[in-house]
Amino acid sequence: MLICGIDEAGRGAVLGPLVVAGVCFHEDEIKKLGEMGVTDSKLLTPKKREELEKEISRLSRGSKLIKISPETIDAREGQAKNLNTLEVEAFKSIVEALKPEVCYVDSVLRNPEKLKAELKSVTGGKLIVEHKADKNYTVVGAASILAKVTRDAEIRAIEAKFRVKIGSGYPADPDTIRFLEENIAKNYPFVRKTWAPFKEIKARAEQRKLF
User: Fold this and answer.
1) Does 178 fall in a domain?
2) CA-to-CA distance for 5 and 8, rounded, in angstroms?
3) How far apart, in whole angstroms, are the C-alpha atoms of residue 87 and residue 92?
4) How far apart are CA 117 and CA 148, in angstroms?
5) Strand 2-9 vs strand 102-106: parallel, antiparallel, or unpaired?
6) What is the pTM of this model?
7) Distance between CA atoms of 42 and 151, rounded to whole angstroms?
8) Which among 35, 48, 113, 203 would be 20 to 30 A from 179, CA to CA?
């Protein structure tokens, strides 16, 4: 039996992509994930995540990563889409590509049953859609690790390409906010310009100019 976990990383970030990951294992391999220490990526150190990512990739029977760029996230407003819509589309693509018999999904919607109904349209397999699934099911924890390690690599690539320091990319990170405050007038492509933190910092900068 092919069992899949799906999760994302970067949903709340103001910098960098949102990464959605799906990963499949044979039923008898799920136990190995727990023995390896696989769990919600937020509970692990960066070093441990990278170590586990290699083992997860070695054990997996198939995986798929979808990177949703800041440009795509910003363009959703003109397409009458919200972030949930973009993520659900990514989840569907992963289910269609991997074709698991059982799929565990960490819900991005307030109502998990709504997401389950959306995914039912692309699979005849069993679906378990819950909040905190990345913590409660090791197979979803594995997906969360793949998503997080991939997004962290994207952030490092951004810093190397543009020769900047942007922190984690999340609004709670002082380094990220400092970067935005110092570079708000620059049109960097990795910034989510429709995000509230960006708009607030830009408004403050414009007020300072006015006075």
Assistant:
1) yes
2) 10
3) 9
4) 26
5) parallel
6) 0.94
7) 13
8) 48
